[in-house]
Each structure stands twice: as structure tokens, then as C-alpha cells.
Amino acid sequence: MQKDSLNSEVRDADKLSSHGASIYYLGSTIFIIGIVLIVLGSALVMIYQIEYASEKIKILYTILSIAVGIILILVGINLMIRQAKKGYAIILASVVFSILASYLFYTNYINNFYYPLVSYIFGLYILAFLGLLGNAFASVIVWIIGNKPVYQTIGKEKHHLYTDEEIQRDIEEATQKSIETAVNQLEFDLEALPKDIIVGKTVPESPGTVIRVKDDIDEVINLSHTLGPLAKEKFGSVGIDRASSLLADTMSQDKKKKGRLFSHKMKSAEKKEAKQFEKAKKINEIKRKKQKKIEAKRKEREASKKEKDLKKKKIEAEHKKKMEMEKAHKEATIRERKAKEEAVRLEKQKKKEQRKLQKKKN
Amino acid sequence: MAKGLDIGTMNIICAEKDQEDIVFTQQRNAFMDLDSNDLTKNMLDTTKVLYIETEDGISLIGEDAFKFATIFEKVARRPMTQGIISPKEKEAIPIMKLIVERVLGKPGNQNEILYISTPANPIDTDLNVLYHKKTMEALTKGLKYETHVIDEGLAVIYSELSDYDFTGIGISVGAGMTNVTLAYLATPLMSFSIARGGDWIDEQVAKATGMPKEHITHAKEKISKLNKEVKLGSIEGALTVYYDALMTYVIKNLDRKLAEITPPKVAFPVAIAGGSAQPEGFFELFEKKLIEAKLKVELSKIKHVKDPLLSVARGCLIAARTQEEKKSYDLKQQKELKKEEQKEQPKEEQS
Prior knowledge:
The structure holds two protein chains of two kinds. Chain A is mainly alpha-helical. Chain A has eight helices and four strands; from the N terminus they run ααααββαββααα. Chain A has helices spanning about 1-50, 55-80, 85-110, 115-145, 165-185, 220-225, 235-260, 265-360, and strands at about 150-155, 155-160, 200, 210-215. Chain A has a two-stranded antiparallel ribbon. In chain A, strand 1 and strand 2 (about 155-160) form a beta hairpin. In chain A, helix 2 (about 55-80) packs parallel to helix 4 (about 115-145) and helix 3 runs antiparallel to helix 4 (about 115-145). By secondary structure, chain B is α/β, with parallel strands linked by helices. Chain B has two domains: about 5-30 and about 80-330, Nucleotidyltransferase, domain 5, CATH 3.30.420.40; about 30-75, no CATH class. Chain B has ten helices and 15 strands. Chain B has a five-stranded mixed β-sheet. A five-stranded mixed β-sheet of chain B has the order 13-12-11-14-15. In chain B, strand 2 and strand 3 form a beta hairpin. The longest helix of chain B has about 40 residues, at about 310-350. The interface between A and B is large, with 57 and 75 residues.
């Protein structure tokens, strides 16, 4: 079944092409005949030395050959050009009018060439001439426009014809998407180091070269402002391409709407965009400065708080020291007193013993 | 506290905030094989060299691998090549896991936010970076971090173009790849990479001068200045030539990609970072080439980055802390909503 339909399509295409070729050859033949007739007519003018007083039959043949020649040239050109709708109908009508005009002229020129018949003959001829000329012009214009197709009408439906680049891009995007989906579904089973790997002694101790840089990274505040609380970052080639193509589409649609006549409006729109960007930049700068001030104040407060805490700690430490010293002093005095009391008591005991010894002696 | 991690072909750098400072922990992404015996192990332990021991022998890790490679005239192996995990190195993933674990350390709290840098898809080769991204993400998630991924070029924009509302072009010239991102108000509009970087320069200079690649890498990191007036036959001359070639290549591809999009009509500043952008004279040369190229977008300023090597890690840290703040803001909002709902419930009950 499919083969039969294919074969019939091929046969139809062959027919069409042969039909087109035959019309073209017919047109070119008629064109040549027309040229020959005009040449003949021009020759007859010179041969017969046509003037006002020349014989009417000679004038008739001369005019007829030139007139018919002109019509045949126009018919030939029309047949050689690809016709728009109703093109062939216009050609046919023009040919009919020209034949009618020629016939009337031929039958009436010698004896009956008076108005209003002359105007009818002339009118018919002019209609035919203009019809053929206008039809040729219109067909050429349609052919020129038709060579830049984005839309091709097939029956009543319009179909978008994709360029090679668009097809390639769609294929790449679909491939990339499927790879990303497949890769995202992968689940790696990450075990610890393979058992046959023994780590050297220094490995656990040394992470690498350490570099310390004084840096507040204020960029974090700016990035939060720029992205906004609800914004999402998109990276990865599909996301970026989509963002870029959306931007391009938006800008190209704006351009199409405005068109060339409104190019000055485009320029002012671009200026507006740049102004808006500058405005947003300024606003962001002001926000950044405010945030920096707030941060600086906060840091000041924290620094002063730290200082106060340090002072407090110092005072506490001094107080503690003082207390300890006083305690130590007290303890020392108590010890002294005790020592003195002990010394006094020993003295007394000594004296007592001496008195006892004396008594014994006595 | 959140962390940023730059996983580069040559260096793995972690950035973390510690009071008023940012602490960068850097380790070379390289390893080198040595024959295993007790004497070697003792020597390595005494000199505190990082190494691991396998059935096949000893592998030195990190900066020491590079130093020993230069001394013993051996080749330092790299777990990553052209910005992604090397398919030729079987031990790439265990080595990288070890280095990343050492550099990152343990998370300070549960599901600590971590942003890791990954390259964009290259436009001059048919490499795909998705598998590498997923592997790195899984590796860090396995260490109990809440991992997010960010393009290297975008990390440079976050780090360096805050004064321009994160609008501009960020270029990271690394060892394996050069990443480029164009962003407008922190939203990336275009992102791509080129499979050429510092390693490509080393290879070309090594071929041109006949010297080993490790020597060239070492000389490149110690080079005084990129200058067109050099001694005949010197490495500096060859390095300048190939740096020039790399810049031209990057700018040509940037111009080509800019033709495919419709960027907003604003002036874009450019920030250039990355380990391979460190040599003195690099920015001046790149600036000159960018101005001469007359790109399809207007350039306002080409920013000289203070620490090109640390910029990507810093950008990742900024992204991580922003995410952390956003998370805490969302939590606050949820709590407030709950409170309001709880207040309304008793009122309804009374009525």
C-alpha cells in the first residue's frame, strides 16, 4: 500500500514537472512569435513607407502585426512566469479581448473606422494589454515574496518550517535533558577507602597549605539583595540556554512589534532600559551603603560590648585579687597572733617549771 | 558555617569563614608512584610527607608529589585532566576522595552547606562534564555536606563583581580548562568552557623547548613577568607566546558565543581569575587583547583580581553563605507563620 501511494506521488510529481515545462516552452514559443511579428511590423513600416496617405490595407497589416506581436510577447512572458491564483484566467480573458479587438479592427478599419467603434476597439486592446502586463507584474512580486518562506500554506493550514539550526538546537536540548535526568537518577555507593589502601602517618594530621586572609565578604549581603528572597539561581547548560533564549525571544518580539518605522522608539526603549538598570544599580548601591552602615554600627556595638566585658572582667579579677590578698593578710595576722599566744604560753609554762625546780631545790 | 570548595585540575582549595578571616586550605591535586620498602616509608614518615600505600607501591599525594617528581625526574600523575576526572587513572576517585576529605574536614553541623565549583560544558571538544559533576557531588554528600554546584565562571563573578551588581563576564583560567560565564544581576545568561588552560601551555612549551613538563610548570609558577622582550631560547619567551595564543583562542570563542545570544544593552565589566592567571603581566596582556577584539558587547572595565588562585573558592563560599542566610530566613518565616497560626487557633476556639 505504501509503495503504491509513493509511486503515485512520484508519478504526480513527474506529471507536474512535465506540465510546467511544457507551459514554459509554449510561453517561450509565443514570446518568440511575438518578437518576430513586431520585427515584421517594424519592417513593414519601412518597406511600405507608412505615412498618413498610405494605403489602408498596408496600414492595417502593419498595425495588426505590431499589435498582435505586443500581445503575444506579453502572453509569452506570462506563461513563462509561475502564475498566482486566477493568473491563467486573466491571461485567457486578456487574449480574448485582444482577439476581439483585432478582429473588430480588421473588419472595420478600411470602411467603418468611426467613433464610438474606435473607442471600443481601443478600449478592448488596452484592457488586454494592461491585464497581461499587470498579471505579469503581480506574479513576479508574489514569486519574490514567496522565496522567503517561514510559512507555507498547504491547503488552509499554516506550517512552521524549522531551519537546520533550530532542529539541531532542539535535538541537543532534548539529549542534554535526558542525560541530566539519567545522571540525576544515579545513586553512588561511596564506601570508605578501599581496604588495600593504607594511609601514611602524616595524612590525618596535615590538611594542606593553610592561607589566612582578612576578609569580611560583604558580597554575601549584596548577593542576597540582588537575588532577592524568592529568586532561584539557574545554572547548568539547559537552564542557561533557556534563560538566554527567553531573553532573546522577548527582545526580538519587541523588535518585531515595533518594526523599522519605529526604530527611534526602539532606541529610546533601549535608553529607558539602560536608565532603569542605572536606577536599579543606584538603589542597590544605596541599600548596600545602608547595610554597610548597619553592619559597621553593629560591629561597633559588639566591639564596645567586648570592651565593657573585658573591663568588667578586669575589675572582677582585681577585686578577686584584693579579696585574696586581704584573706591572706588576715590569715597571716591570725597565725602571728596564734604564734605569739603559743610563745607566751610556752614562756609561762617554762617559768612554771623553773619555779617548780627552784621549789624542789629549796 | 558554610564552605566553598574549588575542585581544580591542579589544586583543590577549600574556603571557610573564621571570625574576621577567610581560611583557605589548598592541596595539589596530584600523586606520584614510588617503590615501596621500609626505608622509604620511614624516610617519608620522618619528613612528614603525605603518602598512601597500596599493593602496587607507595603513592605520594599533593604538593610533595610535584616536588618529588621534579627531583626524581618522574611524571606526577593527575586524578583530573581537562577539568574533569581522568578516565585513564583508576585510582583517581580514591585519591581525590582522600584529598577532598583532608581539605574540607568534617562538617561543623549537620547538613552544612557546601558549594563546589564545576566546569561548564566545553565547546571545542566532545567532553561531557555531567558525570564529573555528579561524582563530585556524591563524593561531598558522602562527607555529610549539603552540596550545591556552581559554575566556575559564575563563582568568579560572585567573588569579584559585587560592585557591579554581579553583572559582567567572569573568566577562570585554570590548569585543565578555561571557564567563561556572562551574567546579568547574578543570573547566568551564557556559560561555556574551553579545554585549554595552564596544562596546554605547559605541553606546548615543553614540546617547543624540549624540557620536561614538570620543569615548565615549576618555571611558570615562578616566572617574573610575561614579557615580549626576552632572552633568546628562554622558557619565558615560549610561555609568553603560548599565553598569547591561549588568550586569543579564548577571546575568539567568547566572541562566537556572544553572537549566539542577545545580551542586554549594558556595559559589562570583566574579571579574570584562576591559577594560570597569576603571572605578572597576564592582566595587561589580556586587557589589551580584549580591547582590540571589539566584542559584540560593550566592556566597561577589566578588573585586576587580587588573588586569582583563590577567587573561585571565595566565590563558592559567598554562594554558600548566601544560601545559608536564605535557608535561615526561610526557617524564620516558617516559624513566624506557625506562631501566627497557633495564635489564631485559640481565638477560633474561643469564638
